[in-house]
Design brief:
Largest sheet: 8 strands, mixed
Distance between the termini: 17 Å
CATH class of the largest domain: Alpha Beta
Number of helices: 26
CATH topology of the largest domain: TIM Barrel
Structural class: alpha/beta
Radius of gyration: 27 Å
CATH architecture of the largest domain: Alpha-Beta Barrel
Number of domains: 2
Number of strands: 22
């Protein structure tokens, strides 16, 4: 902590952090301190504004003479999927872009063996002749070097001819990682000095450029710091870089042999360190195309001030398994920015503002002062049982790191780095109409569930949420449910049992003409360890009093419960319904005082509500602050809201929850709920949790046993390519 304080003092006094400081920031697990420092610097520099542009990617060809190990885009002539656009085809795409309001086309592609400089000059000239106001950001240093060698001209001569033909600026691709040990392993492209010199030449000619770093493959933290230092040195010299863009490695359809995406925890920390180390850069881009919209939005709290643009048709990362899709509308971009409390500003390529969204001062993020960087002392700065108005004030401030600090002080994570979850098998009663069909269903379910995971289930959950939807003659009776439980206990003697589904349980006890208390009594007698809200049903329409009474009825028979609180957004509203959310939280806080049998509280987005990851993480922190007397704050992995649900080419999954799971843990959660083995392979979650500095633990239904998971420390499973990036606890 002393080192972190030294770095903070440097930043507050206007001194530069050095490479040793940057390495420490990469190695620390204290994402709250790193993120809050980056947020402080960003707010001072950019005053709460976040930029985007209306742009269109045009990749003229994927035919390439190079064979870079990490590339999934390149094809050889004659290969399936190889293409090369004509000038007319490129003009058609530019025409579409302008019709959609684009102010920029972004053009990069492969090194076509037959295309010469003249073809590129014709391409540029044709676009500028038809659309003189359209900015062309085109061609990486690798492409420029290739064209110069083919034409036997200097880089300066090639850039001069391209500038005259219409080139407005350069992208930052081809940088990958500057350390030669890494470059030799992953790419056959030009050397680091050559890449830097091409951008130096462009800057000296008045051509601005971006710069990038491809991370999350075989590089170490030292290699990243080396790369950033080279960029900072060149920016000191030329001041020609518009923005720095970290590019997260996409793992599919290449020769690298890496099977997983970058860690969400690492994505955010990488943005924050870039903001702190690259002090001579105004703009750090949270590139949604590669990070996904989820992490990209959260990146706006971690030092980034740009979301790139509408893009429309980016192919390079998509073909490597990119899961973010290829298009975001202007409205979506602005909405993601607004929901973090920042102000959207449409820009041109050179960061001249074109349109700033109308706002009032209350929409701006709080001005971060040096004193705000200190971790708040909860005992002195905030009441132990905050009222609803106290919580609403916190929510409106959009100060994510203040919330995270308050929440982490209350969370068990502060003193105990264990993060629990329960590998489970879900038995959905709505899919099984008669108990005698259960055995056959179980056999089929088990064969599928355990095919990919090393873990056996620790919890069997009988979900009742679909019972009220059954036809009248197909409803499972109360006695049928008890028979289910007996079969499950016999089939899984080493697993704990839980039952979920508030409405379904009510339906059963009413049909059996029993009271809720009697229902819970029978559950307890049949060795059920916990009753919980179902993730598959909404509890809208059930009053706070009804829900409180239900949990009291369970507690009367010593049956632990896990209720949930849903975060909702009113129709046509921009902000969550915090009033209702906090009222529910406070009702459970009071119920817990009476019984002490609420063993966890699950926070979920309401069904059919557009809740962003940033809002959800705020809700987690606020829930922990509101209810310090419930031991487990649960963010069920299957209900973490995601914004990038697409499958990239070659990707076997479209889920982004694993990237977000360690982030929500850092902001107050300490459990990821029950994870159905037929939907998620838990090993990926173990990797994310460990990469964030926490210790994953398998639990049972009522948290009374925590299984040892020391087998996950096998470095070969997920550290083979990242000796420095994923330190084990």
């Amino acid at each position: 902590m002393a080192k972190m304080n030294q770095i903070k003092e440097k930043i507050l006094s206007g001194k530069r952090v050095d490479t040793a400081d940057a390495l420490y920031l990469y190695e620390t697990a204290d994402i709250l301190s790193v993120g809050s420092l980056a947020n402080y610097v960003n707010v001072q520099k950019n005053k709460g504004k976040v930029y985007y542009n209306i742009n269109r990617h045009i990749n003229p060809t994927n035919i390439c003479v190079m064979s870079c190990k990490f590339c999934a885009f390149a094809r050889k002539p004659g290969d399936e999927g190889a293409y090369a656009y004509t000038i007319d085809q490129i003009l058609d795409k530019a025409t579409e872009a302008v019709a959609q309001g684009a102010t920029e086309v972004h053009m990069v592609g492969g090194l076509h063996p037959r295309w010469k400089l003249d073809y590129y000059l014709e391409m540029l000239g044709a676009i500028k002749e038809r659309f003189p106001e359209l900015h062309i950001k085109g061609f990486t240093a690798v492409e420029i070097d290739w064209l110069a060698r083919k034409a036997r001209l200097s880089v300066k001569e090639v850039l001069s001819q391209m500038k005259q033909a219409g080139l407005g600026s350069m992208p930052g691709g081809g940088a990958e990682v500057f350390h030669e040990d890494i470059r030799q392993e992953i790419t056959a492209k030009l050397s680091t000095p050559e890449w830097l010199d091409i951008h130096r030449t462009a800057h000296n000619m008045g051509l601005m450029s971006n710069c990038t770093m491809l991370y999350g493959h075989v590089e170490s933290y030292e290699h990243r710091v080396y790369h950033l230092d080279k960029l900072r040195q060149l920016q000191d010299e030329t001041h020609g870089f518009n923005a720095f863009i970290p590019l997260s490695f996409q793992p599919h359809n290449n020769e690298m042999g890496i099977k997983r995406y970058t860690f969400g925890f690492d994505d955010l920390k990488n943005l924050a360190i870039a903001r702190l180390f690259l002090d001579n850069f105004n703009h750090i881009k949270s590139y949604w195309i590669m990070m996904g919209q989820d992490i990209a939005q959260l990146g706006l709290y971690f030092g980034a001030n740009d979301l790139d643009g509408t893009v429309v048709q980016e192919k390079i990362s998509r073909m490597a398994g990119g899961r973010a899709g290829m298009l975001m509308s202007q409205n979506n971009l602005e909405n993601l920015i607004l929901k973090t409390g920042h102000i959207p500003v449409e820009r041109d390529t050179l960061y001249n503002p074109l349109k700033e969204l109308a706002h009032n001062d209350e929409q701006l993020p709080p001005v971060v002062s040096a004193s705000n960087l200190a971790r708040p002392n909860l005992n002195r700065s905030f009441p132990s049982e905050p009222k609803q108005e106290d919580l609403i004030k916190l929510a409106k401030e959009h100060d994510l790191f203040k919330l995270g600090s308050l929440a982490s002080e209350l969370s068990q994570v502060k003193t105990n780095t264990e993060v629990s979850f329960a590998p489970s098998i879900e038995i959905k009663v709505r899919d099984i109409t008669h108990p005698n069909k259960l055995q056959d269903s179980l056999s089929s379910l088990l064969a599928h569930n355990l095919s990919e995971s090393k873990l056996s289930p620790s919890v069997i959950n009988l979900d009742l949420s679909g019972i009220q939807k059954q036809a009248e003659g197909e409803r499972v009776s109360f006695s049928g449910m008890l028979e289910y439980l007996q079969i499950l206990k016999e089939r899984f003697p080493n697993c704990s049992l839980s039952v979920s589904g508030t409405r379904g349980l009510w339906c059963l006890v009413q049909s059996a003409q029993k009271s809720l208390g009697e229902g819970f009594k029978y559950l307890r007698e049949n060795q059920v360890d916990c009753f919980q809200s179902s993730i598959y049903e909404s509890e809208r329409g059930i009053t706070k009093t009804e829900m409180t009474n239900l949990h009291h009825a369970a507690h009367d028979y010593s049956l632990p419960t896990i209720p949930k609180v849903e975060l909702n957004v009113a129709p046509r509203a921009e902000s969550p319904m915090w009033d209702n959310f906090f009222a529910q939280l406070i009702s459970y806080r009071e119920a817990q005082k009476e019984s002490g049998c609420i063993i966890g509280l699950s926070i979920e987005p309401a069904k059919d509500s557009f809740i962003t990851p940033a809002e959800f993480i705020m809700a987690i922190s606020l829930a922990r602050i509101a209810i310090p007397n419930i031991p487990r704050m649960i963010t069920n992995l299957m209900r973490i809201p995601i914004l990038s649900p697409h499958k990239g080419e070659g990707s076997s999954t479209h889920l982004a929850e694993e990237k977000l799971s360690p982030v929500v843990i850092s902001f107050g959660a300490n459990d990821l709920g029950q994870i159905p083995l037929d939907q998620v392979v838990p090993e990926a979650i173990f990797e994310e949790i460990r990469a964030a500095g926490f210790v994953p633990k398998v639990r049972n239904a009522n948290f009374s046993e925590m299984a040892d998971t020391s087998w996950t420390q096998d470095k070969g499973a997920f550290m083979r390519h990242k000796p420095k990036l994923h330190k084990l606890g």
